[in-house]
Each structure stands twice: as C-alpha cells, then as structure tokens.
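Propose amino acids for all 117 sites.
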C-alpha cells in the first residue's frame, strides 16, 4: 500500500494519511511521537521499549520523504530519528485505539503523565 495523500493539520495536531487501498487515518502528533519506530523509543529488542512521557503538546515541525517507502517526522522536542514506513503508518492507523489504550495503561502503571513537566 502507498499513500495517496498526506496532510499535516497543525491546529488539530493531526497527520492525515490516505492510502491506495481506500484507508484514511488521522493520527495525533502525540500518538506518532510515543510510537516512534526509532531505537530511542522502541529499544533494540523486546522489553527494551522506553515509555514516552510529557508528549501531550508535541508538534511536528517537518516531514521529509525517505525514498518511496517512508517519511521522517521531526518533532519540536528534537526527536527526529524515526522512519515511518507506509506499512507502519497503515498499521498505526488500523490499531490506533488499542495502542492508545495500552499507552495510557502503561503511563498509569508508571505513575507518569502525558503533560510536560
């Protein structure tokens, strides 16, 4: 699958992406940041994930194409090392509700917050 449209909505802090299979997703900036595919967030193996906190107000400041298979998102907190493949973005859209619920549960268990300190 390949995107047919990618739109950055700064006011609502959403990345809207439409795919050639007809799927269309609106992904919140915060969601994209806490589920960055970078090693900094995901670790180098199972169980090494780093819980991202204080990202409620994060903003995407740049989108850069990476070949014909991905985009690199730059966030205003300086994070820019994740390459979001078309497949990964599609998966994020398909599973966003469950992934978001899981993130909120992990925050709660860690007694952490979405709000910046």
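Proposal:
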């Amino acid at each position: 699958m390949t995107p047919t449209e990618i739109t950055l909505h700064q006011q609502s802090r959403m990345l809207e992406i439409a795919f050639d299979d007809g799927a269309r997703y609106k992904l919140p900036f915060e969601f994209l940041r806490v589920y960055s595919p970078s090693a900094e967030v995901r670790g180098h193996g199972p169980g090494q994930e780093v819980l991202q906190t204080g990202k409620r107000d994060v903003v995407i400041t740049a989108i850069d194409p990476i070949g014909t298979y991905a985009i690199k998102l730059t966030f205003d907190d300086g994070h820019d090392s994740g390459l979001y493949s078309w497949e990964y973005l599609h998966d994020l859209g398909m599973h966003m509700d469950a992934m978001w619920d899981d993130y909120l549960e992990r925050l709660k268990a860690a007694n952490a917050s979405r709000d910046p300190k």
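The longest strand covers residues 3-9. The helical segments are 29-34, 39-42, 86-109.
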